[in-house]
Write a structure and sequence with these properties.
- The chain contains 3 helices and 10 strands; from the N terminus they run αββααββββββββ.
- With 161 residues, it is an alpha+beta fold.
- The longest helix has 18 residues.
- The protein is elongated.
- 14% of the residues are buried.
Length: 161
């Protein structure tokens, strides 16, 4: 089995959303495990963490000037709640470009369709293309290029309307 066959098998496993696949021949064996297996992927925006900041304020009455930033944070959280989040399906390094000398896959304001590649995540020297699973307009890129990402970490905000 060559590297192309392995890459195709990995793509198949990720699209099939199974938890584990074992492939064994006379002189070769490979096991591919995914954290996504049989779990429904939730792309709804999670409740914002912004609500914890005002609770850490001192018990003394806050001046009126501090009320404006809290209102702005609440507006931002409410605004982001209407967007759909594209999350990382794996741990690795996030890249917005297919290679250093190429243009980025998508920018803020670009329209994406289901199946369009939005970024690449490198994991163990394999570059995995991450595709949009919804159609809409990119509102915000949440991760800097060439930075590590965790499983289920938000990468993009998409306006589905």
């Amino acid at each position: 089995m060559d590297i192309k066959d392995i890459q195709n098998l990995i793509k198949f496993v990720s699209k099939a959303e199974v938890s584990e696949v074992k492939y064994k021949t006379k002189d070769f064996e490979i096991t591919i495990k995914t954290p996504l297996g049989a779990n429904e992927i939730n792309y709804a925006a999670a409740p914002a963490v912004y609500h914890t900041a005002p609770q850490s304020a001192p018990a003394a009455p806050a001046p009126a000037a501090d009320a404006a930033p809290s209102a702005a944070e609440a507006d931002t959280a409410a605004e982001e709640a209407k967007y759909v989040t594209i999350k990382s399906p794996m741990i690795g390094t996030f890249y917005r470009k297919p290679s250093p000398d190429k243009d980025v896959f998508i920018n803020v304001g670009d329209e994406v369709t289901t199946g369009k590649v939005v970024c690449v995540i490198e994991a163990m020297k394999l570059f995995n293309q991450i595709e949009a699973e919804i159609s809409g307009k990119i509102v915000k890129v949440l991760v800097d290029d060439a930075t590590p990402v965790e499983y289920d970490q938000p990468l993009f905000l998409v306006d589905p309307s």
